[in-house]
């Protein structure tokens, strides 16, 4: 039985899973397990520019051995055609995303940002 997706039920098409950037404490190998097609770029500024320039894909820059700056430009590649996250229950999934509650202030902000096409940071 598939997990109930309250985001889809409310009409949201995973607004919080597109055009996002952030930093996370992880290794390159761990990050690539979640995003195997991610492209390494030269700096965190380049990571952000990928969203600003609407270059769809996942991009990352290594800040040091344990920090990655990343951007998902466009829709996250880990979403299926029904906007369900394919890695939601995996250890690769970000707690900041997993903990977002449907209808919360952060959720509403993500929907507004998604409609405007502006970058959001997690």
Shape: globular
Individual helix count: 5
Major pleated sheet: 5 strands, mixed
Strand order of the largest sheet: 2-3-4-1-5
Helix content: 25-40%
Mean pLDDT: 79
In terms of DSSP E residues, the strand content is: 15-25%
Number of strands: 5
Rg over CA atoms, rounded to whole Å, is 14 Å
What keywords describe this structure?
122 residues; 5 strands; globular; alpha/beta
Describe it for me?
- The chain has 122 residues and is of the alpha/beta class.
- It has one domain.
- It contains 5 helices and 5 strands.
- Strands 2-3-4-1-5 form a 5-stranded mixed sheet.
- A hairpin with a 2-residue loop joins strand 3 and strand 4.
What order do the helices and strands come in, and which of them pair?
Elements: H1 6-9, E1 18-25, H2 28-34, E2 39-40, H3 44-52, E3 57-64, E4 67-75, H4 95-98, H5 105-116, E5 120-121
Parallel strand pairs: 1-5, 2-3
Antiparallel strand pairs: 1-4, 3-4
Task: Characterize this entry briefly.
It is built from 5 helices and 5 strands; from the N terminus they run H-E-H-E-H-E-E-H-H-E.
